[in-house]
Each structure stands twice: as structure tokens, then as C-alpha cells.
User: Fold DUF3179 domain-containing protein from Spirosoma arboris.
Amino acid sequence: MKRPFLFFLLPILLLIIAEVLSVYFIMPFPGSQLGLAETEAGPASLGRVELGYWLHKNIGWMRVVGLLLLAYPAFLIISKPRRVWQRYVAGILLLAYGVVLYQVNMEMMADHMFLQPIHKRVVPMSENKIPLNKLVVGFESMGEATAYPLQLIGYHHQVRDTVGGESIMVTYCTVCRTGRVFSPLVRGQADEFRLVGMDHFNAMFEDKRTGSWWRQATGEAIVGPLKGQSLTELTGRQMTLGEWAAEHPNTHVLQADPTFAEEFEHMKAYDRGLSKGKLTRRDSASWKPKSWVIGVERAGFSKAYDWNTLETKRILSDVVGGEPLVLTMAPDSVSFGAWSRRVGVQTLNFQYANKKLTDKETGSVWTWRGHCIAGSLAGRHLASIPKAHQEFWHSWRSFHPDTKQYDPGN
Assistant:
């Protein structure tokens, strides 16, 4: 071999580049994800993720081939170098590859950065240590209820649990502010999932059986053998623990695993949008990439409602997908509800005045939870709109490119 250094240099550089790109395309490095304002292309723009997926699935044989290709040139350079400096450069590059290999696979992979609870404790309210003003994603099934604090699931990204005999997967992405509850059944069988990276700044999970990658905000498999399939979304509701407990006195609450005390401390201000990181901090202005919105899906239609407008007006009435609905704000100004305005054959129109929510048709008084407490409709309940989520505007419009924006003037 006349030029062993060249035959060594090419495969070692390709190996280093392949290792870096395998994590670069699926983690929030500069330029690796679409910018927060660069969402016009929509989530169909998956080139980065598809390339990352290909590298993820093929990196094993690429390592073997690359190491085999550079083995003989490396031997010649080390044992019989044509120039002494080549031996040192080769050694430095081998060391660099080892460092990159370790960093990429042991430090930078998403499931190594954000770990699952080691000591998972779900306790009744009598044993609860979570403050009542903390936001939670609550889930109820068969008369049983459990609350999952955002401060905890925001770090873990997913927590598996069983509520009312139903297996659930509670997920959260802090960069999108998306809380979702899914059934972990894939093709009728319970599967295991690990956090694998991000797409359009949204968390992705990989299922254990097929290796498909699933988007957290929508539950859709975007690459892999199950591409196009979706996990069944279950109804989770976001509100303060105090409001959830008032509604579900028998609720259990996920507690903080002391193993991750430092990580949870970093999430302390996240609930109210006061995080230090620019990817998770709220923009208090309206309709900015990091502004809060409530997104509603109904019958194939979607619409976004500005959080500031709801906070000011306390209720917003509209029609989405043919369903008349009302969004309500709780007295704490951080909990909210989404309800159908239909009561039997009647469609109600609501007004909020003097800190009282009433319908114009009968003058009955309602709570923000959709319960009528006085008037001719006393005892009636508004039906919940299941797919109504608070999240960042950049996230909602990325994954709902056809969404409409609510205009309070119309």
C-alpha cells in the first residue's frame, strides 16, 4: 500500500462524521431542527429525521466496515510510518473517534439524558408532597384518577402507569409544551418505548418491537415499519393539582423520585413559563413562536386560541368541526376547560360578567368545569371536548398546518 495514511484518513473521518450526524439530526443542535418560526413547510418535511433514522439503523455495520478498512493502513502507519507525524495524527484521530463514539452513544442520546423514574411512587392525596398550585396532567379511568406533575413528567418525558386497570403512557415535551396520554398498545399488544430524539422540536419515541419512531405531539409513527400508524390518544386534562383534586378527591399523585432532585429543581419555574432556557421559556406576547395557545381538534378540523385572550375574557365561544364549544378559564388563571355548548337539543350561548358564568338562554349559572349550579338547568353538565391542549404556538401550527386562528372580533 503506497499511501496508507490516505487510506486511513478517509474511513476514520467518515466514521466520525457518521457518529456525529446520527445524533445531530434528531437532537436540538444549531440548525438540526426547523427553526421555531420556520414552520411553513409543516411536519411533512422529514428529511432530517429520515436520514437520522437511516443512520441509526445502519450505524452498526458502518462501524464494522469502517474499522476493517482502516485496520491495515493503521497498522502500517504505526509500525512503519513514512513520516513520523503521521503516527501521531493517526493516534489523535483514533482517540478522537473513541471520544465521539462514547459521547454520542453514552452522553448525547436522548434516553441517556432524560431517564425514567427509578423509584416510581404514586400515592393518595393524604401522602402527597406535591404543592397544590403545581400544574398536572390528570387522567381518569373507571372511577380511578391519577395526577402527573408537569415538573416531573417534563423531565422524564414519559411515565408508564396503570389507572383503573388501563395501561397508559403519559408523555410530555417541554420544548413544545405538549402533554399527551396514549395507550401503549401497538397492533393490539403492549409495547415499550424509549425517548430517541426530536422532530420539529418535538420528542420522538422508539417502540421496542419494530424500531419505528413516534411523534409525541400526535402519536403518529413518522418513520420505520409502522410509519403512518397512530397510537390511541386518551383524554388527559391539564390543570393545577388543587383543581384536579377538587374534581377527583380520590386521586393519586405521582411523586418526585429523589434520584432526580437536581433535574426537577431546574424545572421548578417551567409551569408558569419562566424557564431560563429559550426553548422552554414562554413569550408573554400573543401569536409568537413561544406564545401559549389552546389547540382544539374536532372532526378533522383544528383551531388555535390565544391564551392571553382567554385569560382576559375568561370564556371563548366558537364552533370547530361543526361542534359549538366554549373554553373556560378557572379562577386561578392557569387551569382551563373545553366543553360542548350542546345540552340536549339546545345550543347554549354563554356570557361572563361580575365573575359569574351564565347562559343567555336560561340565565343558569355554571362553573368553569361545565357544571350548572343554579337555575333551570341546575345539575346538568357540559360534555368535555377531549382534544383540547395548551401548548406553544410554534408546536401547534407545525403539527396542524391547516389550523385556523381564533379571531375574537368575528
